[in-house]
Amino acid sequence: MGSLSGILQRPLVAAAAVAVASFSSDLPTKFSTPKSSLESLSLAEESICSPCTTSLQESRSWVSHISVSKLANLSFVTRIRVPVPNISFPVLNSSSNFAPSTISFPSLVSSLSLLNLFQSAELAKPLTYEHTEPTSVPEVLYKWHLPEPNVYEVSGNSDCSLAKSRTVVVLLGWLGAKQKHLKRYAEWYTSRGFHAITFTFPMSEIISYQVGGKAEQDVELLVSHLADWLEEECGKNLVFHTFSNTGWLTYGVILEKFQKQDPSLMSNIRGCIVDSAPVASPDPQVWASGFSAAFLKKHSVATKGNPSSGVSDKELPVGSKTLVEPSPAVTEAALLVLLEKFFKVVFKIPTVNRRLSNVLGVLSSEQPGCPQLYIYSSADRVIPADHVESFIEEQRKIGREVRACNFMYTPHVDHFRNNPNLYTSQLNRFLEDCVLTCCKQST
């Protein structure tokens, strides 16, 4: 997908060049030496007496250019330690009416006037360094969250605790998601005894995506880690929890790599939870909405819920009608038009179209036979509810066990925050009925 990388990067590089040029034009004024400082240095040089020895002129230090009477006036002197060379150089001598005299370093140290100067300027104090922590911590690719240790003691069911301890829930983030955004989901799973892995893509990797490039190499690392973990002990399982089309497509790439590496790994997948997805076709309008929401974040209309969300928070059947929704601002509407035209061109690139078709084919017809749960909303401005419902019906037709919950009024990938009770009840029921079947059998 080299063409996509070039198309996406050129406007970004141009914008960066403009920013750097504007910043560079200010450098002479920001970093030029102040006039007053130059004058003080000039006066300092003039205060040094001219008759110096020939050896001094050949090996003169920068210290010899600064008058001791002017030294204390420099503000930076009080914060640094000045290196004094072991050479001969002129110093002021009050008994000779400021005539220069050449003395060695030992006599310099013993000079009372210079000692007083050093003490007043605090040059004799050791240099102290202030360590400042970096303002931002580099974003990690994925993070492993261990279950809370006291959970197994409280549960009381040894079979259920063992099943949870052998299950990893892999959370695959949406476009623009960071580790902090998935933390609340991971904490919910770990508080119930599950392991959790949170996986996110940096926006830079998505924008510069290439077939077989950095993004797919990152997925390969995750797949290798999961495969190694599954092979450590018999009876370990995986549950995938995906967010938006980005997380869902990442799940498809993982399935594809499992099939190539070891098809038996597919049998270890016990369930898949799909939040705010899918759209099982390269739809330019959907992709434009997703990228617009990722760029604008809270300023996007996609983050706004339905104004009629005060209606009862009960589970709604598939096929519920969408209510009237707010319209995007003029700037966002213009951005959507541009992005939609852009993706219409991108999806016609043969390598891009072929790669997407392969992954979508795996997700449509080659998913493992595990149960699926779809959480979506009629108020979602990124992933239309009718696309989700259409895919659900297709999965049911080929014999998949599918559950679905329409939250009706909540925005894209924001169902948990807006309605945590309904969200967690759906997760609990799905995990108990479809994943932790041994717990029900033992009771």
Can you put this structure into words, describing what you see?
It is a single chain. The protein is α/β, with parallel strands linked by helices. The chain has two domains: 40-121, no CATH class; 142-442, 3-Layer(aba) Sandwich (Rossmann fold). It contains 20 helices and nine strands. The strands form two sheets. A seven-stranded mixed beta sheet has the order 3-5-4-6-7-8-9, sandwiched between helices. Strands 1-2 form a two-stranded antiparallel ribbon. α12 (214-232) crosses α13 (244-261), α13 crosses α16 (350-365) and α14 (284-296) packs across α15 (330-346). The chain is globular, with a radius of gyration of 34 Å. Mean pLDDT is 75; it is low at 1-5, 11-112, 121-133 and 308-316. This is Transmembrane protein 53. It is found in: Nucleus outer membrane. Keywords: Membrane, Nucleus, Transmembrane, Transmembrane helix.
Topology:
Layout: H1 2-24, H2 27-31, H3 35-46, H4 54-58, H5 68-71, E1 89-91, E2 101-103, H6 105-109, H7 112-121, E3 142-145, H8 151-155, H9 158-165, E4 167-172, H10 179-190, E5 195-199, H11 203-207, H12 214-232, E6 237-243, H13 244-261, E7 269-275, H14 284-296, H15 330-346, H16 350-365, E8 372-376, H17 385-397, E9 402-406, H18 415-418, H19 420-435, H20 437-442
Parallel strand pairs: 4-5, 4-6, 6-7, 7-8, 8-9
Antiparallel strand pairs: 1-2, 3-5
Helix pairs in contact: 12-13, 13-16, 14-15
